[in-house]
Design a protein that fits this description.
single chain; 524 residues; alpha+beta; 20-stranded mixed β-sheet; 20 strands; 38% strand; globular
Length: 524
Amino acid sequence: MEETQSQKKKLSPKALISIIIAAILLIGGGVAAYIFANVSDKQKYFLAEKNTMEFMTEQIEKRYEPELDWLEQSKEKPVETNYELSAESNMATEDLGMGEMDLSQYINNSTISLKHAADMKNKQMAGRFQADIGGIKVDGVEYYLTAEQFMLGLPFLDELLSVKGKNVGNLLYQLDPTTYTGEENIDFGTFFEGSLSEEDVEYIKKEYGEMIYDQLSDEAFKSEDETIKVHDQSLDTEKITMKLSEKKLKEMLKETVEKLQSDDKLKDLIRKQLELQAMGSSALDSDIDQVLKEFDTSLKEAKDGIDNLHIPNGLTSTIWVHDDVIAQRDFSVKLGPDKDQLVTFSIKGTHLLKEEKQQFNLDFGFEDSNNQDKMNVTGDLSWKDEKAKDSIKLTIEDLTLSYDGKESLKDGKRDFERTFSLKDPDGESGSIIWSGSSTYKDDKMNADHSFAFAPAVDSQHLFSLHAAVDGKTMDSVKIPKDDQTKDLGAMQAEELMQYFETEVGPKFEGWLVELLSASGNLAS
């Protein structure tokens, strides 16, 4: 049965209002660009938010400068990367649920190789796949992608199978004429594009950051000096409190929703993101139109519901600033559609941010008339003399997810061991140990990674995955010419059927028999 429009899930006014409030709270980093000399308490509040975010970003960039430089280089230059994967298992056959078959033997004697080349700037990609699975060797699987078409090479065919974006509709129509019209197409070029551009981000910051910042009056902010204790250290801080009344919050929400309703550029950005997720497929245009229509409907419902929204205590956010960054914060807001359905959101915690060491302990709270939930995040990160020791723990009731890592960087080579552990309420536990080394230098890189999976019951029963990676810049990515391809998108139904029955099918069967015979897996 087809889903009716009324049955389709849409964004509720409550959810939308929550999103908008979250945007208001997090907009600090964007609006701080409008701060000038002789700062007020309001300006100091947002400047502290901005400084805190920038400080943490700078620490990450300093620590992982080689990796980030290589990433930026790969966006501008063609890069070839070779991956070789292997695995090791000492798990008993019965643990794998395979009966008499010893799957470990296949795992321990198998390798997978991939040579991948990408030119993101010119929208070209190519790769070749090889595998040796317990003596069964597969080679000759290739793929190519450009902004116009996708090509696949198979070891039993002389030509490449090709589908052009503009011909996708015809191929789909030949396969299923009742569902497709033949007019559909795919823009493969969207695969090479990122999400929001810097220009898009600046637009959102300016249009919405500046608007929300201007709506906040200086009188909503108060400051005073206060000495606090953070991670066993006594700090002299400036305590800055932002207090917004229920009336002011509703005014801000209303103006924000009204701007969203009339902002055609923002809606174009939303459409662009949806199209990127759909790889530019025109077959989903109607679905995207429906999503945007429901977005408009939700905005109208949200605006209509703002007057009835209950925010009895308004919003209060207090930060304690030390050395220009936030050392402690306390945020809370209680809201709901009526006085009997109020939900309290809160964030409380501390940060001790130094150049060589960053510590934090934050509680995120959610409370309504039936539940009182809390998530705690703690962290202790250090980077000194090009050595790192990190610990992060996330706790939700009795469930704990933790990360512990050690790293060192010497002569451009990074050695590391990172452990991710999970402990559930029943006392079960398990971990993934990611260890290895990597080197990034000029136009080359190489890395060795090992992932060891330790199950909850017996840590001796490990499954390990190994990856060796080598990369280098190259002049260009080689893409086959059209005369080497079989354009499936230009064929009619009868042609497709005949081609697969007389060419692809028989050649595949012959290749498979030869493959199994060579590996000794075909019964005589």
